[in-house]
Amino acid sequence: MAALSEVVGSSRHDGMPAAVARPAIRAGARAALLLECALVFGQGDGVRILHTSDWHLGQHFMGRSRQAEHQALIDWLLLQVSQHAIDAVLLAGDIFDTGAPPSYARELYNQLVVRLHEARCQLVLLGGNHDSVATLEESRPLLAYLGCTVVAAVQEDLSRQLLTLRDKAGQPAALLCAVPFIRARDVMQSQAGQSAEEKQLGLQQAIAMHYQSLHQLALQERDRLGLPLPILASGHLTTVGASSSESVRDIYVGALDAFPSNAFPPFDYIALGHIHRPQQVGGQAHIRYSGSPLPLSFDELGQSKQMLLLELDAGSIASISPLNVPCFQPLCSLRGTLADLQQSIAAALAATPAGQTLWLEVVVEGDDYLSDLQSRIQQLLEGQPVELLRLRRARSQQRASLQAERSTLDELSPQEVFERRLALEQMDEALAADLRQRYRQIVQALQEEQT
Predict the structure, then answer these.
(1) Where is the Nuclease SbcCD subunit D C-terminal domain (predicted)?
(2) Element (H, E) at 33
(3) Strand order in the sheet with 386-393
């Protein structure tokens, strides 16, 4: 196996990748270098790695561009890199919101790479289920010259997914098993006659085997280096017990769509993406979702948006600290009767920073159907620095059937539309369950075509 510490995940700050700029070290000099590395590693102030995910560059929030927010996010990130002396940034999937991101999203992507390179900070980008493998691959070789490692998809050569993260002096600080979103076709072959549950169980076993193989490769590399390096891993998937939000898309089809956390090998830290709510998995402090840095739907407004700062010292994870991401665009969701809303809207506007426009969702409660509801709410907002992005009525149990008829497609998910159509048919539950399964498979196939 090639000396990964000399090839993968390392770069010189003059812009030339180590694999090009530095010849392989001869065996005689290697022992002396390893001793020097160990001394440097033991004397440092600790290596700092920032875990983030789910940026969704190019996302539109109810038809509004997030470009200004993402620009502010990059500026804020560079400030954290400087203030906290961060050595590496790990973005665990869903870099872009779609497989064909708009040009401004690509510009922000390139800006992120260049500015972190100028800050002498390594960057590792992992593909997510929203990302196109082809889009990420097209610039991967070029970005390698800027200290950025892109792992868009599972690699046939596993050594390409084993990266060495380095400190500011260029010495090995940690090994990273860089796992992106795992597509079923990348790790298993479908067999005729399998049930959905059998396919899901087979996929879980294949994912577990992928992590096991990488972990074993990392152990071998650590032994070869002779350094007490922590072994980290990334992932872009749903684990058992994770709590999601309405903007999170189901990745895998079937009942067994969550990967059990006890199937992970004993990594020192697992940096996860896909779930937008920051959280530990199963109460285990070393398995974490960083969450998305921006709220991607109104139901994420109550969440703390953060990135996770890992400090490595003496070959272990010394600390994990959240860095709270500020709000770059005021958002608010208000719920109440028409009488209540006038006061709550005034309070929300009073809390909006001067010079900024509030993006607002209003949920009107009450059983009375008002044909002029839209105009009434607009009158309350007239002349104020606010944009009404969504107006909907609360669905009370007493008026559920009436509200269902008047619901707009904007208020319904594709699954809800399917369920309503299904409810119009007379069929047994077994057939209905089979149709639901087939529908999910079709949706997943379409989503994979887009990425």
Answers:
(1) 327-425
(2) helix 27-43
(3) 331-336, 358-364, 386-393
DSSP-assigned letters across all residues of 2-28: --HHHHTT-B-TTS-BHHHHSPPPPHH
Distances (CA, A) of 289 to 58, 60, 86, 284, 388: 22, 23, 19, 11, 31
**Same-domain status, 384 and 445:** yes
181, amino acid identity? F
Helix (H, G, I), strand (E, B) or coil at 255: coil
Residue ranges with strand state E in 237-328 = 269-273, 279-281, 284-289, 306-313, 316-324
Q: Phi and psi (nearest 5°) for 65?
A: -75, 145
Structure token pair of residue 374: 């839209």
- Residue matched to tokens 């200290």: 147
Rg (CA), the chain: 24
Asked if 249 and 447 count as a contact pair (C-beta separation under 8 A), the reply is: yes
- Single pTM value for the model: 0.77
**Do 240 and 344 fall within a single domain?**
no
**Burial grade of 364 (CB within 10 A; 0-12, 13-18, 19 or more):** buried
Q: Where among 290, 324, 358 does a domain terminate?
A: 324
Find the DSSP H helices in 119-195: 133-143, 184-187
Q: State both tokens at 222.
A: 């650590």
Distance CA 306, CA 80 (A): 12
CATH code, domain with 233 = 3.60.21.10
Q: If you search the block for the tokens 């000099």, which residue do you land on?
A: 29
Q: What is the DSSP string of 75-138?
A: HHHHHHHHHTT--EEEEES--BSSSS--HHHHHHHHHHHHHHHHTT-EEEEE--TTS-HHHHHH
Domain containing residue 403: CATH number: 3.30.160.720
pLDDT at 401: 42
CA distance 188 to 195: 15
- Range of 227's domain? 4-324
Do residues 252 and 174 both lie within one domain? yes
Count of structural domains, the chain: 2
Question: What is the pLDDT at residue 51?
Answer: 99
Q: Angle at the Cα of 402 (from 396 to 408), degrees rounded to 5?
A: 95
CB neighbours of residue 44 within 10 Å = 17
The region of weakest confidence among 292-296, 380-384, 437-441, 444-448 is: 444-448
Pairing relationship of beta strands 122-126 and 64-65 according to DSSP bridges: unpaired
3-state helix, strand, coil in the chain (%, to 5): 40, 20, 35
Q: Are strands 284-289 and 269-273 parallel, antiparallel or unpaired?
A: parallel
Q: What are the tens digits of pLDDT across the range 218-233?
A: 999 999 999 999 999 9
- Note whether 117 and 41 are same-domain residues: yes
